[in-house]
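// run 5 | inverse folding | seed 20
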């Protein structure tokens, strides 16, 4: 094993036995011959020869199988702990747990969408239970979707689980139908919701009955907006406080959580005209109205990015602002995070607008950190979303509307500023570095332009440098980009001879010094050759005897120059 490449021979003495190392050699032929001899002499049930190559960077060996002969490996069954064995739902009450309802919503998604209801309503409405039982095939397929993966997880036969869940579904449906026959779910047209809540207090089945009452109130109401409006009406009719108040609000919140989980319902509530980014911003405004109002008060431009919510969504926002429906608020906030981490574009036809809405969402979600989400969850979501902003497709779409390479550089600088994560910052910096280091960028800045002088070009480059410094790039990337911009600025200044012309101009020395010092400080010229030449000329002007005498005669003229001298690295 002294060399960078060697061969290892492994054997299994019996079929179920694990692999054990038999020998290692640098001779490939010897390794293969030894393995075949072991198998031929029945000293092993199976043999394997691997080629091990040393990676000098990591000092680890990369393994490649060269030869495998003999009995195949025996696949061992996974040992399932006792607390995980058996069906995960054993009684009808287990199906009412949040995780179970979520699973029911997934396996019966198509059927529930056709009926325009949620899994919570299915478990509390006799008419829906009867329809599902009559469908037959729908229920059978849903049971199979649950039983097959659970069989692999818990190690129980599929048929046993199918039979178990068939019996469980029959018992659950019978429970709901029996409650309907006994009129346990009163009609709110003839009863007061508050009175019913007070009457049910202390009863063992109060949660099930109140769930049926709330679900029955949604019967015949279709569409996310109309259903949310009805739920808000029920919330207004609930008792003011105490356990009866919670008894009503809990099922309302559970239905809303499942209601907003469907993308079609969300679009119906917020408005179909909103794109994905605007919808997410509207959701944040709905669950964090006070934070969004405070942000808009500080920066009114945010109001252009965050849509106004009205109707039932506004009614829900008012209750959320009062501290009601915390589970729904957290659920919607996490939904926004999931969408940010998905590959779906926020604004498919507007790359620049996507960055705008992403910046708005970052500001809004950061303001809610600690109440709805942790700061780590927010940062992780935007790091993941930033990966999509530095891909070749997005960057091409982002700079597509730029007519000049300078426009591209400014746009890419803004991209660098708005992406998060070290790797994403580095990727964005590579795009910007390639742009400002290209011959096209240099040629465009050197070309004569009727609407822009050389001095104006230097000012533009200086502004670009300041923007790059505000992007939060790594020191190396920032230095490389600024150096490239400075080199172009030096070429522009050298061809126009701006510094030399300033030094020879008949203007007062104070005025010439002010212009040169601004260039040397990076205010009107990028750091690099142009700033360095301006600094040299400024020093020459200071040292000239006539100029020193003129400045000494009017010391008050030096006061405005001292900050510029310090910025340029000259002793004030």
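// decoded
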């Amino acid at each position: 094993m002294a060399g960078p490449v060697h061969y290892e021979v492994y054997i299994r003495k019996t079929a179920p036995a694990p692999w054990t190392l038999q020998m290692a050699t640098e001779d490939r032929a010897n390794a293969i011959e030894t393995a075949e001899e072991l198998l031929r002499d029945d000293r092993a049930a199976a043999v394997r020869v691997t080629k091990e190559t040393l990676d000098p960077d990591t000092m680890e060996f990369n393994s490649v199988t060269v030869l495998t002969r003999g009995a195949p490996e025996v696949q061992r069954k996974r040992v399932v702990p006792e607390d995980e064995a058996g069906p995960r739902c054993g009684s009808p009450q287990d199906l009412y747990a949040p995780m179970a309802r979520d699973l029911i919503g997934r396996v019966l998604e198509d059927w529930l969408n056709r009926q325009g209801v949620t899994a919570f309503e299915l478990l509390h409405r006799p008419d829906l239970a009867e329809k599902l039982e009559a469908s037959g095939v729908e229920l059978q397929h849903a049971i199979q979707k649950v039983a097959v993966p659970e069989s692999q997880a818990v190690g129980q036969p599929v048929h046993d689980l199918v039979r178990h869940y068939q019996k469980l579904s029959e018992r659950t449906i019978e429970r709901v139908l029996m409650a309907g026959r006994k009129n346990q779910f009163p009609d709110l047209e003839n009863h007061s919701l508050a009175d019913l809540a007070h009457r049910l207090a202390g009863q063992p089945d109060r949660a099930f009955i109140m769930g049926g009452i709330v679900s029955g109130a949604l019967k015949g109401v279709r569409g996310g907006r109309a259903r949310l409006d009805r739920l808000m009406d029920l919330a207004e009719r609930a008792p003011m406080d105490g356990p009866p108040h919670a008894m009503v609000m809990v099922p309302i919140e559970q239905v809303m959580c499942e209601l907003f989980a469907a993308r079609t319902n969300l679009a119906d509530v917020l408005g179909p005209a909103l794109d994905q980014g605007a919808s997410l911003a509207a959701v944040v405004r709905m669950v964090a109205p006070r934070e969004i109002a405070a942000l808009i008060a500080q920066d009114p431009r945010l109001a252009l990015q965050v849509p106004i919510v009205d109707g039932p969504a506004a009614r829900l926002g008012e209750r959320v602002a009062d501290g009601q429906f915390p589970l729904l608020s957290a659920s919607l906030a996490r939904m926004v995070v999931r969408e940010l981490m998905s590959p779906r574009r926020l604004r498919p036809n507007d790359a620049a607008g996507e960055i705008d809405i992403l910046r708005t969402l970052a500001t809004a979600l950061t303001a809610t950190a600690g109440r709805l989400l942790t700061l780590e969850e927010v940062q992780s979501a935007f790091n993941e979303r930033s990966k999509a902003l530095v891909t070749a497709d997005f960057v091409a779409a982002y700079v597509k509307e730029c007519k000049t390479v300078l426009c591209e550089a400014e746009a890419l600088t803004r991209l660098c500023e708005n992406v998060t994560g070290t790797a994403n910052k580095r990727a964005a910096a590579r795009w910007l570095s390639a742009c400002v280091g290209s011959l096209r960028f240099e040629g465009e800045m050197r070309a004569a332009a009727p609407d822009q002088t050389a001095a104006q070009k230097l000012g533009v480059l200086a502004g670009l440098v300041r923007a790059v410094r505000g992007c939060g790039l790594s020191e190396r990337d920032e230095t490389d980009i600024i150096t490239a911009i400075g080199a172009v600025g030096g070429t522009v200044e050298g061809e126009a001879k701006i510094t030399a012309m300033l030094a020879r101009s008949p203007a007062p020395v104070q005025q010439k010094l002010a212009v040169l010092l601004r260039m040397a400080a990076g205010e009107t010229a990028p750091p690099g050759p142009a700033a360095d030449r301006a600094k040299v000329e400024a020093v020459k002007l200071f040292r000239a005897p006539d100029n020193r005498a003129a400045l000494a005669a009017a010391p008050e003229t030096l006061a405005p120059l001292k900050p510029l001298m310090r910025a340029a690295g000259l002793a004030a």
